[in-house]
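Structure in, sequence out. Go:
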């Protein structure tokens, strides 16, 4: 299905007799009239055909530390070519990336053409910086579906890694198909309360739960991030329930609890540090690896052995130092670390 140029027809789109197109990529199920785009802004009806108009067009391209995604247990210490375009199929009132997720004037954005083959060249050019592949991130990669799918297939053929940083809102069939070519995901679980998901994000907790579970069952390396919004999704009972659900999938699955700052429509003050540390302590009752982000807390981003508590990796400003890890195991007790490792 890969194309040689930068154009491609959308998949998961059903043409209707009235000239509109129904998008079947996510559960929003937009019915799009000619000339219009769907809710996410990236898929347009052009003369009765669905066109992913951001295919191979990136709003942002950068070489990032893997820890910045954040992925702490997947090639720690490596870098990854990070790409994103504009658009998102959720509508979070507190979106921290709203300038590219929900741009006011997408037509005025400067986009860079980057065909999948050109992306591979950029990764190879950065191999001396320990670049292991590409991360589809910044805005929502799932609405960039065709490009992410084609690129991930090519990355796999080239022996490179494909990473998604996603809200997990996609239908089952396209998700399972994409997972065959994806090595790691950081999935944003925006809370563990269906009402919060609906009212503040226009999303659906059940969809993201199902897709986290299918990614874990598919053998993809999964880490989860939750941005804690004060008086929104910071109830400790809900954090405990979320941690219990994740622990049921894998008690060593890494969870990142991140501090919110006022953005977009949400004007509440930043999450108190005590809220973050209390949530971390509750989550640690169930999960072995719970990290905090966007906040300075001692040892908050270090990795400790799930067997004996020994420090295995320390992190500072996205730099990783191996302390007591040897061949993927704790030097003190021999417990294996749930991580995909290289060069640490
Ligand atoms: S992917 Fe975009 S266009 Fe398709 S249903 Fe979802 S929001 Fe609508």
């Amino acid at each position: 299905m890969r194309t040689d140029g930068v154009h491609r027809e959308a998949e998961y789109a059903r043409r209707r007799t009235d000239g509109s197109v129904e998008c079947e990529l996510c559960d929003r199920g937009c019915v799009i009239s000619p000339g219009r785009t769907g809710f996410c802004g990236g898929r347009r009806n052009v003369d009765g055909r669905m066109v992913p108009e951001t295919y191979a067009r990136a709003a942002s391209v950068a070489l990032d530390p893997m820890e910045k995604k954040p992925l702490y247990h997947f090639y720690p210490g490596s870098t990854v070519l990070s790409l994103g375009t504009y658009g998102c199929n959720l509508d979070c009132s507190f979106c921290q990336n709203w300038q590219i997720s929900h741009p006011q004037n997408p037509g005025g954005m400067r986009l860079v053409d980057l065909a999948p083959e050109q992306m591979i060249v950029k990764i190879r050019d950065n191999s001396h910086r320990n670049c292991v592949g590409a991360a589809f991130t910044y805005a929502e990669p799932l609405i960039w579906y065709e490009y992410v799918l084609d690129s991930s297939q090519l990355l796999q053929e080239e022996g490179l890694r494909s990473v998604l940083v996603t809200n997990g809102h996609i239908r089952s069939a396209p998700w399972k198909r994409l997972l065959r070519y994806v090595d790691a995901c950081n999935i944003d679980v925006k809370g563990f309360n269906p009402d919060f998901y609906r009212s503040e994000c226009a999303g659906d907790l059940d969809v993201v739960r199902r897709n986290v579970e299918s990614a874990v069952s598919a053998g993809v390396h999964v880490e989860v991030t939750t941005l804690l919004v004060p008086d929104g999704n910071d109830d400790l009972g809900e954090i405990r329930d979320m941690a219990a659900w994740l622990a049921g999938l894998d008690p060593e699955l890494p969870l990142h609890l991140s501090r919110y700052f006022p953005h977009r429509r949400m004007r509440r003050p930043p999450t108190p540090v005590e809220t973050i540390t209390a949530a971390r302590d509750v989550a640690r009752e169930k999960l072995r690896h719970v990290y905090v982000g966007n906040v300075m807390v001692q040892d908050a981003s270090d990795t400790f052995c799930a067997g004996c508590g020994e420090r295995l990796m320390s992190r500072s400003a996205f730099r990783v130092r191996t302390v007591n890890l040897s061949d993927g195991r704790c030097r003190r007790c021999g417990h294996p670390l749930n991580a995909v490792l290289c060069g640490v």
